[in-house]
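Many introductory courses stop at the sequence. We go one step further.
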Amino acid sequence: MGKTITGVLLAAAAVVTCAATPAQAAPSYWCTVKADNVNYRAGPGPIWISLGQANRGQRLTLTPPVTARGTDGQNWRHGDLWGGLRNVWIRADFLTC
């Protein structure tokens, strides 16, 4: 009986240990703005309202949908600005990814 209880306790300890191990976070992908006064917009293309401007070095964390062809025929990236607005679009040629 002692071996059975010990085995159950060891199995329970293994379950607790596994449950307490934090899961790995999903990888985060981001781009860096490579110029000053770059418009970020509500949608992919110049017909969408400009919500503000980002400057060189500011980062954009990419979020789905990551890329879209804009109304201007250019590629645009979608994401959240670090320390700024979420759900914005910046033309891809103004970003280093």
